[in-house]
Specification:
The chain has 19 helices and 20 strands. By secondary structure, it is an alpha/beta fold.
Length: 499
């Protein structure tokens, strides 16, 4: 069998928006993904469902798998002819041991590529308002590993570092912070030199402590810090308060789980990220078109018999027009039809196909759409209702006595990401809010998190049915004023303010 190939891909410092375009393109094509603990949840959520995942769990002093074994895993999987992505936090070649992983591959003739990643020594200070270089303060940057073997002295020339008068960034040095500061002071650094420790930079867990080299260890002891964190020493640390920007965003420090189907998730996620939220995209459901759909084929063969066609979701619009194309039905055969849509998202999906909506209820739910259709239709006018297989009965109840062809076009299936434990995130308080856009997303989330104490879930819901499903599980529920994405995003912002 022909050998596969290995890509060493830098996942960046945490914010999935800092994952490179090339890294994302490579990841989408992966057969197997070997990943670290330091890869952000948002990037992990981008791993394709079809890829096998191997968690090697590397984090300072806690290795799930020894480096030599990781090297062997990469070789083994490539020798099977697979496309292997080695996904590493930050950049593969900056204290990422990427060079060691390539040695064995090069020796065995396995082809490989390296995709650099945005690195934390630059990105994390930037998210904290600290420019690592500034011509008024420093003209050099020095990145040092703060990790050392237990019981061994540092193999670092601290005097040389002090004499550079540059910005110093120590990675993996949180537990050694007192030692690092003591060595810098012994090497002649001024005690009042500004210094900072930056926790979980570029994520919702971001925290900054700024002090001096002499006082930082005591401040950390007083205020507390969590890993991963980096240490920055230099005059530029004094600029943090003036240059901070992340803290000023409305949803700063707020981690939001979005559960919409993958094809619908991007708009909401982007709106939340623009306001500063860390968004974890974990679809709770997926939609599948009903293949060999004889009922829909028959309905499409007699389109002239209908006066109205009503859509209850953007997915329903997409699937219907995909199936029209599959059946070879000319879209001009819809010209005589009046079109109804349940709400703004569905109307937008129709507008994208060049179709304007004739009817949309003021309240975006099935009962309101059914009532609006009942008021607009004559009893002798037939209605085509292409929608989900398990659609709500409310719309049909309002159309009792009318001629309605209720045709299932797609079904909903539950989804679960094996490499992110959603339940554990909520149990540990790692997610501030979950956003649900339908009752089925609530049920899908429940299916993926069996055993979770749902009272720990703060749920932002788009409508009454969605909220009722979340209430039934015992979640702390809130409902948006309108059944729109913008209104739901506004609700999340209000929850953040009240935290």
């Amino acid at each position: 069998m022909k050998n596969g190939k290995v890509w060493l891909v830098g996942a960046g410092p945490g914010d999935c928006g800092l994952f490179t375009l090339k890294g994302y393109q490579v990841l989408k094509q992966a057969d197997v993904v070997v990943y670290d603990s330091l890869v952000g949840d948002g990037v992990l959520a981008m791993i394709p469902q079809t890829a096998e995942t191997i968690d090697v769990g590397k984090r300072a002093s806690h290795h799930t798998m020894p480096q030599e074994q990781i090297n062997q895993v990469l070789l083994r999987e490539a020798e099977k002819g697979r496309r292997v992505v080695r996904l590493k936090g930050g950049d593969p070649f900056l204290f990422g041991r990427g060079g060691e992983e390539l040695e064995l591959l090069a020796e065995k003739g396995i082809p490989y590529e390296v995709v650099p990643g945005v690195t934390s020594p630059i990105a994390v200070p930037a998210y904290n308002g600290i420019p690592v270089t500034h011509r008024d303060y420093t003209s050099s940057l020095h990145i040092i590993t703060g990790h050392k073997k237990a019981g061994q002295p540092y193999d670092i020339n601290f005097r040389a570092l002090v004499e550079t008068k540059g910005t110093l960034v120590f990675l993996m040095g949180v537990t050694a912070l007192p030692d690092i500061c003591a060595h810098l002071l012994e090497a002649g650094m001024e005690p009042d030199m500004p210094a900072a420790i930056l926790q979980k930079g570029t994520t919702a867990g971001q925290k900054r402590i700024v002090a001096t080299v002499a006082t930082l260890p005591e401040e950390v002891k007083r205020q507390g810090i969590e890993t991963p964190a980096i240490i920055v020493v230099g005059r530029v640390c004094g600029l943090a308060e003036n240059f901070e920007w992340y803290e000023k965003l409305p949803l700063e420090g707020y981690k939001v789980l979005v559960t919409r189907p993958k094809e619908l998730i991007s708009t909401m996620a982007q709106k939340l990220r623009v306001q500063g939220a860390e968004v974890l995209e974990l679809p709770a459901i997926a939609t599948e078109a009903i293949e060999e759909n004889d009922r829909l084929r028959a309905a499409c063969g007699r389109l002239e018999a209908y006066r109205w066609i009503a859509f209850t979701s953007p997915t329903g619009v997409r699937v219907f027009f995909d199936q029209l194309k599959k059946f070879g039905v000319d879209i001009r055969r819809l010209a005589h039809l009046k079109i109804a849509a349940i709400g703004e998202g569905t109307r937008k999906a129709l507008q994208e196909r060049g179709l304007l909506v004739d009817l949309m209820p003021e309240v975006y739910d099935g009962a309101s759409l059914g009532a609006a259709l009942a008021a607009a239709c004559g009893k002798d006018e037939r209605i085509l209702l292409p929608r989900a297989e398990a659609g709500s009965e409310e719309i049909l109840e309002k159309l009792e006595g009318f001629s309605v062809d209720d045709v299932p076009t797609y079904r909903t299936v539950y989804q679960k990401q094996e490499y992110i434990d959603e339940g554990a995130l909520f149990e540990k308080g790692g997610v501030d809010c979950a956003v649900f856009t339908s009752a089925s997303t609530v049920r899908g989330f429940a299916e993926a998190t069996k055993g979770l104490d749902y009272s720990k879930v703060k749920a932002a819901c788009i409508g009454k049915q969605t909220r009722a499903a979340a209430d039934a599980l015992g979640m702390e529920t809130y409902m948006s004023e309108k059944a729109t994405i913008d209104s739901l995003v506004q609700l999340v912002a209000e929850l953040r303010k009240s935290r």
